[in-house]
Specification:
The chain has about 650 residues and is α+β, with helices and mostly antiparallel strands. The chain has three domains: about 5-260, Beta-galactosidase, Chain A, domain 5 (Distorted Sandwich), CATH 2.70.98.10; about 275-535, TIM Barrel (Alpha-Beta Barrel), CATH 3.20.20; about 560-635, Immunoglobulin-like, CATH 2.60.40. It is about 20% helix and about 35% strand. Strands 7, 8, 9, 10, 12, 13, 14, 15, 16, 17, 18, 19 and 20 form a 13-stranded antiparallel sheet that branches. The protein has a seven-stranded parallel sheet with strand order 26-25-24-23-22-21-27. Keywords: Calcium.
């Protein structure tokens, strides 16, 4: 880190008269983004200007702490500033290398007539985003401290449309801010001001305190934050309030701001953390194969799936709920397995086939039989990961339990996936990269309701801003999956090519494949692109996208490239521009396409495959059926 002399001069000028109408001017490394912190008549506020466009006009900034209002009658002092620039390598991320380049500013905010009451405000400004957090030292806390309310009010220069996370339902939006009041909206919160102006709000490093929600209940173009924190007796920091900016909606999900707000990797040896694909028993229960075999919760079914995984470049086998008894019964002990399942035999068989086993663990069993005891047993058996489900407690309890689970899983070399309305991803996978994914959205066939194409289009542009998603994509038996299976409740809308495309558009540490081996074998030529997909990609880029309508995403793995495209319920033609390819190279492109008569309800399983040659100057028009998709695998030619 290096000091920036010009900023220190600005600080000196400010501190010479810090109780008069003054402001501090904070800037991004490339000078495109400016945050001005004001203390006009001893009332604190800020504004934001991006590339000359005022996004946030003067906005109140501060907290209510122990009944004290820190937005008025305050002094801002003790400014320090640094520039930081590093590049680090991900273990589990959208791209292999991440640049972390920002200017950081720290100020002390104290009451004018009671300087013993104070906190520090830390602001980080990136070229396409900014974040701030509140820091309370032990001196500021005294015996006990209660953050009662966040008084910040974001006043935007103009009206906007917004979209937001909506748990296991289709995302909220588009909603015109001026047209509808909502007291509680959960981030990621995506805003569109114009065709070339976007902003997303989320939190970085949710590690101790309950997550905030967003209040959009006033009449103006403003937003507030809802917070609910317990009393604190030790030094602490809030999570980062994070703002990602872009001229394209794709800029928001391409952003690395959230992971950069978290501490560096704390796991010394990460060789055991290996993203990949997984077979899954849960949705296959009741499936009858052509040889008469009926899948169920038993070791024989698991072995059949492990065998398929071993032969088809699928790295894992997920054994889901009820393998140790009813998951919601406090009598079910996850250090044993129920009748019909021999977990030791299964582990030995999987090891011989070079397949890792992921074991489900319900919060009830973890707490009743001892979390560490259970995780140690999983590790001793040879499991590679844990799917943790239905965590209970207050939001703050869930934050603390999530951190505890992740840290103990790291201790026993277990990767972990959180399900059932988990605490939002917040970039924390940087610190503990064994946190590979979360069910942060409507997962297919889940919640006993259908999942439609418009949800698939928006999840990469909204939910995925937060981090990696486990959404169980990759169905091949779209016509009949709901027939005869006990855990598929409704017909699945979509096309089989769209199912393949989702495995490219959705970034996840574990791509959990929901269908039976037999259904994948029936479409073996289509499954070929899934075999070719790496467990970890080198890069991620949104080629083209429009909220609610379509999305195209590019993933790179060495000299191979993958493109996944999805559309909503409307058929459309997209132009794929291959300008992202290195100049001079020739590539064999295998195209996986909807058939001419494909449709997400009426003809779901028809597809075509063709090959052609492309280079960096190629442009290709591709057709997507209503509710359909398109996938491309590019291989460099010698």
């Amino acid at each position: 880190m290096k000091l920036i002399p010009s900023l220190l001069i600005a600080a000196a000028v400010f501190l010479s008269s810090c109780t008069s109408d003054e402001f501090l001017d904070f800037r991004s490394p490339n000078d495109d983004l400016r945050i001005s912190l004001l203390n006009a008549s001893n009332e604190s506020s800020f504004l934001a200007v991006f590339k000359g466009d005022t996004l946030l006009k003067e906005s109140t900034l501060g907290l209510m702490v122990n009944g004290i209002d820190f937005t008025r009658d305050v002094v801002i002092s003790e400014l320090s500033s640094d520039e930081f620039d590093e590049t680090w390598e991900t273990v589990n991320g959208k791209q292999k290398l991440v640049r972390n380049h920002y200017n950081e500013y720290q100020v002390k905010v104290s009451k004018l007539d009671q300087p013993q009451y104070f906190y520090e405000l830390v602001v980080r400004i990136y070229d396409k985003g900014f974040a701030y957090q509140y820091v309370f030292s032990k001196d500021a806390i005294g015996d006990s401290l209660q953050v009662e309310k966040e008084l910040t009010e974001l006043n935007f220069q103009r009206d906007f449309d917004y979209w937001a996370y909506n748990h296991e339902h289709h995302n909220l939006g588009p909603i015109r801010r001026s047209a509808k009041r909502m007291e509680k909206v959960e981030p990621p919160f995506v805003m569109q001001f114009s065709s070339d102006s976007f902003l997303a709000i989320h939190e970085g490093a949710i590690l101790d305190l309950a997550p905030f929600s967003i209040n959009a209940s006033s009449n103006t173009n403003s937003l507030q934050f809802n917070t609910s924190y317990s009393s604190q007796s030790n030094a602490f920091s809030t999570s980062w309030r994070a703002f990602m900016l872009g001229e394209r909606v794709g800029d928001l999900v391409e952003s690395d701001l959230l992971v950069n707000l978290n501490e560096p990797n704390k796991i010394e040896d990460t060789s055991w953390i290996k993203p990949g694909r997984s077979m899954w028993d849960w949705r296959v229960w009741g499936y009858t194969a052509e040889d008469g075999f009926v899948y169920g919760p038993n070791t024989e079914s698991h072995k059949r799936m492990i065998e398929f995984a071993s032969e088809n470049n699928v790295q894992y086998m997920l054994i889901d709920a009820d393998w140790y008894g009813s998951e919601f019964s406090d009598a079910s002990d996850p250090t044993t397995s129920k009748e019909g399942i021999d977990i030791v035999e299964c582990m030995e068989y999987a090891k011989a086939k070079n397949i890792g086993i992921i074991l489900y663990l319900n919060d009830i069993g973890a707490k009743k039989f001892g979390l560490e005891r259970v995780l140690k047993q999983f590790s001793d058996w040879g499991a590679k990961g844990v799917k943790y489900g239905f965590m209970k407690g207050t939001p703050e309890d869930k934050v603390e339990q999530t951190r505890k689970v992740v840290e103990l899983c790291a201790k026993y070399k277990l990767m972990v996936d959180f399900h059932d309305s988990p605490i939002a991803p917040s970039g924390d996978r940087r610190t503990y990269p064994n946190l590979v994914t979360k069910e942060f959205g409507h997962s297919q066939s889940d919640a006993k309701r259908s999942y439609f194409p418009e949800t698939a289009v928006n999840q990469p542009l909204i939910n995925m801003i937060a981090g990696p998603l486990d959404l169980c994509n990759g169905w091949f038996s779209l016509n009949s999956a709901h027939i005869g299976r006990s855990k598929v409740f409704e017909e699945i809308p979509g096309t089989v090519v769209a199912e393949v495309a989702k495995l490219i558009t959705i970034y996840t540490g574990w791509a959990v494949l929901p269908d039976s081996p037999e259904e994948y074998k029936k479409k073996d030529d289509l499954f070929e692109i899934i075999r070719r997909m790496p467990g970890q990609y080198d890069s991620f880029k949104v080629l083209d996208a429009k909220l609610d309508e379509y999305v195209s995403i590019i993933r790179q793995s060495g000299d191979d490239w993958f493109i996944g495209s999805l559309t909503n319920r409307e058929a459309r033609t997209l132009t794929l521009d291959f300008g992202f390819l290195p100049e001079g190279g020739k590539y064999k492109a295998t195209l996986y396409e909807d058939a001419a008569d494909s449709h997400f309800l009426e003809n779901k399983e028809s597809y075509t495959i063709k090959n052609l040659e492309v280079d960096s100057e190629s442009k290709l028009e591709v057709k997507l059926a209503a509710g359909g998709g398109h996938a491309v695998h590019l291989v460099k030619m010698n």
